[in-house]
Amino acid sequence: MNSTTDTVSGAGSRESAADPAQSRKAFLAGVASTFGWALDLFDLFILLYVAPIIGRLFFPSDKPTLSLAAVYASFAVALLVRPLGSAVFGAYADKHGRKRALMISMVGVGLSTAAFGLLPTIHQAGLIAPIIFLVLRIVQGLFVGGIVASTHTIGTESIAPRHRGLMSGLVGSGGAGMGALMASIVYFALSHVFPGDRFDQIGWRVMFFSGLISTVFGLVMYRLLDETPSFKKIQAERAKQKDGAARQASPLKTLFAGEYRNVLLINLLITFGGGATYYITAGYLPTLLKLVANVPHESSALILMISSVGTIVGALAFGALSDVIGRKKTFYALGVFCLVLLPYLFMLIARPASLPQITVIASAIALLGGAIIAPVMIFLNERFPAKMRASGTGLSWNIGFAIGGMMPTVVSLMSGSPQDIPHVLAVTSALLAAVYLVGAKVSPETQGQFD
Fold first, then answer.
1. What structural domains and CATH numbers belong to the chain?
2. Torsion angles phi and psi, residue 126, rounded to 5
3. What is the mean pLDDT of residues 288-293?
C-alpha cells in the first residue's frame, strides 16, 4: 500500500517538476508560431502599405485603379504559388519536423523581401524591372507557403487542448494583426524619417529592407525551439516500424486520395470565404484610407496601427469563443456579422468624416477581418491526423487564401474610379459571407478531434 502510494506520489512529483519545462516549451512554441506568422505577414503587408507607390514605379498607368490592380495582381501571384510552397515544406515538416521547416522558410522569406528594396524601377531599367519584381514575388510566395505549414501546427500541437481555439486566433489572425501592426509602426516611423516625396524615393526601399528581421527570428527560433509532442509521437512510432518511413514518404498522395480529397474541398469554402474577406478588409484598408478617405501618409499609418489592434482583439475574442461554443457555431456567428456589418462599414468610410470617425470605422473593419479567420487554423488542424497535419493544414489554408487573395485585384478592376471602390467592396463582402456560411453548414464540428 505504501509502495503504491509512494509510486503515485513520485509520479505526481515528477509531473509537477516537468510542468515548468512543458510550460516553457509551450510558450516558446506559441511565440514561434505567432511571431513567425506575424513577421511573414509583416513582409507581405509592406507591399500593401506602399501599393500606390509601387504602382507608379513599376506598373505606371493613366488610370490609378489599373496601376493599383497590377500591384494587387503581383500580391496575388505570391498567394497563388503559396500552395506549392506549402506542399513542399508541409511534406518536409511532416517527415523531418516542424521547426526545421520553419527555419528554412523564414530565412527565405526575409532574404527575398529585402531584395525588393534593391530593385530598379521601370523608369531606371525598363520592362525588366516589373518582371524581376514578379519573379521575386513568386520566390517570396513559395517560402511563405512553407511558413504556414510550420507555424500553423507548432502552436496548437504544443498547447493544452482547452486553449487551442485561442491559439488558433492568436496565430492565424492575431499574428496577421501583429504583422500589420509592425508594418504600420515601420511605415509611421519611415514617414517621419523620409517625409513627402523622399518616402516615394527612398522610404519604400527601407520598408522592404526591414524584412531581414524574419531571417534573424527564424535562425534564433531554430536554436531555442523544441519539436512538438505530436511530431515526437510520430517519430517514436516510425522508430518501431521498419517500413514506417516508406509509408510516410508521400503525405501529399494520401491527402489527394479518398476521403481527404473531399475534406480538402470542403475546407476551401471556409478558407476562401474567410481569406478573401480578410484581404478585402485588413488587407485593402491601406488603399481605402489613401484613395477613398484621402488620409495623408502619417495619419494613415497611425490609423492602421490602431486598426491592427482591432484585428488582434477580434482574433483573440473569436478564437477563444470557438473553445466555448465550438468551431461550427463560431463560423455561423462570424458569417452573419460580416454579412450584415461589412457592407455598411464599407459604405460608411466613403462619406466625409473626421479622423477619429474614420479610425473607428477602420478599426471595426479590421476587427471583423481578423475575427473571421480566427477559428480557421484550429478547424483545419482538427481535420487531419498528426502524420499529415502540416501538409493538410498548409494546403487547405494556402489554396483558399490564394484564391481569396485575388479579390483585391478583382475589386480594383471592377472599380472604374476610387469612388466606386466602397460599392464594389460592399457587394463583394456580402457574397463572401454567404460562401463562408455555406462552408459552415457543410462542415462538421471538429472540436476535440485532435490526436
1. 32-235+251-442 (1.20.1250.20)
2. 80, -155
3. 85
